[in-house]
């Protein structure tokens, strides 16, 4: 399976900076030509349309960082899946730990978002992961088990093939302290086992499970080398074209 490298810019880059990044990335990608990774950029909402226009004709896909689970109506400040599609999005990140932590998103809410995204033809990138306390208390597997069970509730066997799961241990996000390849592999294998229980062997084998948390040009190759790690969700190191490209190249 092709590795997938997703940039999550979080609340960084205005319109001009986003456009500059896209132009520079395009120039660099044209030089490198043979790329064996699926690349997705998730900028702030305000840059989606401009990036869509600039990345048109490249193999870089567009994603959003969040969405709401209703289709239309009086939900001030929210963005629907349909709106994201109209800006050229193919993917949407749901259940990022920062959404859970700062905006009180529960797994039940994330489940509604996953279902709505799939209904509207967007591919969710579902984030799961344990916090430091849970990690230290060796609760990683039970936390992930609960998150997956709830977040994937009512997702059909047909639809699950359009879901990417991102394992993002919260203690590794923005801390410079990444999970070791062994730790990532072990949790990814646990997620596969869980998918086998919910769905079947084939779904479990073919599921795309990516890792996120302090991925850098220095550690990407080692993390991506594991067969059960199908790529990465990159925060800080995706903000500069040079480091993002190095990470993409680690996925080849
Ligand atoms: P960092 O790569 O900055 O640790 O962020 C990871 C992340 O949260 C991506 O969604």
In short:
With 252 residues, the chain is of the alpha/beta class. Helix content is 42%, strand content 16%.
Describe the fold and architecture.
It is a single chain. The protein has a single domain, classed as Aldolase class I (TIM Barrel). Helix content is 42%, strand content 16%. The protein contains 11 helices and 8 strands. It has helices at 15-32, 48-55, 81-86, 97-102, 107-119, 132-136, 140-151, 181-198, 201-206, 220-224, 241-250, and strands at residues 3-8, 37-42, 60-64, 91-94, 123-128, 164-167, 208-212, 231-234. The protein starts with a strand and ends with a helix. It binds 1,3-dihydroxyacetonephosphate. The site of 1,3-dihydroxyacetonephosphate has 14 residues, from strand 8.
Task: Give a topology summary.
Blueprint: E1 3-8, H1 15-32, E2 37-42, H2 48-55, E3 60-64, H3 81-86, E4 91-94, H4 97-102, H5 107-119, E5 123-128, H6 132-136, H7 140-151, E6 164-167, H8 181-198, H9 201-206, E7 208-212, H10 220-224, E8 231-234, H11 241-250
Helix pairs in contact: 1-2, 5-7, 7-8
The chain binds 1,3-dihydroxyacetonephosphate.
Low-confidence stretches: none
Computed structural class: alpha/beta
Give a list of the ligands.
1,3-dihydroxyacetonephosphate
CATH class: Alpha Beta
Largest sheet: 8 strands, parallel, barrel
Number of strands: 8
Notable traits:
TIM Barrel; 42% helix; alpha/beta; 252 residues; binds 1,3-dihydroxyacetonephosphate; 8-stranded parallel β-barrel
């Amino acid at each position: 399976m092709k590795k997938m490298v997703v940039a999550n810019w979080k609340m960084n880059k205005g319109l001009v900076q986003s456009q500059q990044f896209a132009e520079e990335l395009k120039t660099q990608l044209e030089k490198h030509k043979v790329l064996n990774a699926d690349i997705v950029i998730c900028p702030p909402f305000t840059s989606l349309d401009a990036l869509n226009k600039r990345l048109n004709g490249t193999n870089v896909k567009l994603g959003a960082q969040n969405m709401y689970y209703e289709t239309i109506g009086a939900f001030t400040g929210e963005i629907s899946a349909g709106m994201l599609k109209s800006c050229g999005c193919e993917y949407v990140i749901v259940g990022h730990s920062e959404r859970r932590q700062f905006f009180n998103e529960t797994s039940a809410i994330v489940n509604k978002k996953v279902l709505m995204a799939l209904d509207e033809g967007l591919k969710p990138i579902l984030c799961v992961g344990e916090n430091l306390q849970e990690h230290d208390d060796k609760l990683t597997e039970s936390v992930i088990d609960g998150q997956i069970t709830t977040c994937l509730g009512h997702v059909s066997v047909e639809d699950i093939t359009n879901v990417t799961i991102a394992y993002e241990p919260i203690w590794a996000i923005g801390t410079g302290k990444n999970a070791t390849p062994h730790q990532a592999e072990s949790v990814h294998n646990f997620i596969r086992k869980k998918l086998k229980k919910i769905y079947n062997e084939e779904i479990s084998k073919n599921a795309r499970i990516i890792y996120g948390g302090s991925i850098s040009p220095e550690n990407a190759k080692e993390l991506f080398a594991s067969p059960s790690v199908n790529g990465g969700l990159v925060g800080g190191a995706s903000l500069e074209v040079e480091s993002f490209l190095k990470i993409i190249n680690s996925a080849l």
